[in-house]
Amino acid sequence: MKTWIPLIAALLLAACKPAAEPVPAEPAAADAPAADASAQAAPEPIAQTHGGAAAPTPTAAGETDDHAEVNRRIGQMLGDATRYETAILAFQQAVAQKDAATVAAMIDFPFRATVGGEPATIKDAPEFIAQYGRIVTPEMAEVIVRQRYSDLFVNGKGVMFGSGEAWINGICVDKACNSFNVRVVALQPTG
Question: Alpha-carbon torsion 76, 86, 154, 34, what sign?
């Protein structure tokens, strides 16, 4: 019996160690939200978090994509995980359907983007919609649509798709950040 104790202890310790997370491709400074806390800063963590684990969703391969761990990290680092989950899934659906108007409604304007390989500032939704196909390239769209929820990277800068092709974060509505909107804060080619 005593020979099993060190083995069991080692297995328990190994199970408790968090997996190393990849280092994300941070949004470029111009793509990150501006420092103006009244309208642009990412929210401080909010006490209200996701009250329960979301039901796993089926993937194209028939596997399940468990949202619980990502929602836990979102809740700890960014705030209300339910709001983020809703925005993330709506964003993926809009990109899959090439629905430029819905994606534009999720953008925090003015928005820095790469248009035809050149940096540009997109001032509003009509301009974004007109440039949609040049901003959300087929390669970027594929990364966004294929992103498994359970594989999303989460840190204090937001939720990252792929290798940094897209970032979603909270944008404060008031100076105290008592209220925030979940918005797309970066769309950038990484290759």
Answer: negative
